[in-house]
Design the sequence.
């Protein structure tokens, strides 16, 4: 009896953890790392490492975990059809237990971020706490009625870009130093990059979106035009990034960014020509090299997006971290 009870507790804990969707936590980490690097103010001390740890906890398990838990709660009927093995539709968690799940992580996120904000004090503390509060609010209204921003691409993609790409950068920068003007530029670039990626990520649910009346861009304008819109946004991000790097005095980085843009366009052309099988030479990288990280898909257009994402994300992150490092060194 004791063994059965213990096993039941473990299974319940696993279900609660699954509801927070750990694989999604990493999505905000590059912006957090970039914001910290660009501050140029973090010291090699136990105190600063503790702050860094709390930063990742607040935005990962608590912040993103909260949004994923809320999403599962309000998508119960949809998940009964599309993802019946998820914790709530499978019966491993009740709806009441799900409410307890996202309520607890919400409370922890608010308490820890408020404590850090008060501890930092001043404008930095206000910015740090406000950024998280903004993300939590959007994380809720993204999935919850009556607003349910995810139902319309004109609201859903910017909401994701704001929470994952913009306020995360500012929050991380404010934790260790004053907000750098260059960081606002990097945060803006991450905002638009996130918008483009979320637009293409919707390929995986295009059939379900069409049947349920959800207005994703791919439902409204088709796969090829969706790729075109997303690619234009991404190419503009790299172009503006190169201009900013030049104005910041990072001339070598500017040439690297332009080279990255050229590589991206080389991958984009075959995907635009054939949204289903374009850039198939990258498929091994998806299946073998990054399959467990970025996932796999049975939807051809979404699989093409994953092939592109392997190249694009590496190029963007390398350039972003390079810029953040140079900015941090500039303010040492």
Sequence:
């Amino acid at each position: 009896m004791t063994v059965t009870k213990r096993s039941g507790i473990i299974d319940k804990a696993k279900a609660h953890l699954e509801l927070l969707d750990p694989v999604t936590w990493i999505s905000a980490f590059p912006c957090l790392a970039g914001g910290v690097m660009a501050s140029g103010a973090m010291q090699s001390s136990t105190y600063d490492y503790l702050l860094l740890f709390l930063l990742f906890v607040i935005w990962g398990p608590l912040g993103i975990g909260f949004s994923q838990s809320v999403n599962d709660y309000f998508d119960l009927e949809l998940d009964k059809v599309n993802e019946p093995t998820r914790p709530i539709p499978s019966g491993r968690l009740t709806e009441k237990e799900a409410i307890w799940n996202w309520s607890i992580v919400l409370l922890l996120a608010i308490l820890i971020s408020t404590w850090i904000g008060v501890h930092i004090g001043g404008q930095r503390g206000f910015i740090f706490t406000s950024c998280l509060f903004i993300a939590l609010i959007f994380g809720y209204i993204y999935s919850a009625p009556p607003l349910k921003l995810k139902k319309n691409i004109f609201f859903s993609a910017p909401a994701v870009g704001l929470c994952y790409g913009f306020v995360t950068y500012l929050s991380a920068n404010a934790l260790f130093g004053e907000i750098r003007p260059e960081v606002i530029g990097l945060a803006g670039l991450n905002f638009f990059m996130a918008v483009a990626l979320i637009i293409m990520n919707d390929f995986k649910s295009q059939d379900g979106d069409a049947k349920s009346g959800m207005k994703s861009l791919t439902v409204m304008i088709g796969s090829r035009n969706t790729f075109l819109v997303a690619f234009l946004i991404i190419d503009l991000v790299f172009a503006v990034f190169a201009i900013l790097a030049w104005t910041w005095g990072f001339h070598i980085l500017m040439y690297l960014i332009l080279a990255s843009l050229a590589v991206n366009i080389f991958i984009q052309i075959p995907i635009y020509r054939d949204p289903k099988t374009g850039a198939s030479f990258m498929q091994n990288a998806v299946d073998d090299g990054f399959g467990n990280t970025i996932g796999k898909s049975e939807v051809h257009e979404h699989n093409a997006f994953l092939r592109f994402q392997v190249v694009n994300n590496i190029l963007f992150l390398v350039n972003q971290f390079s810029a953040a490092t140079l900015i941090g060194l500039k303010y040492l």
Observations:
- The CA atoms of residues 119 and 125 lie 7 Å apart.
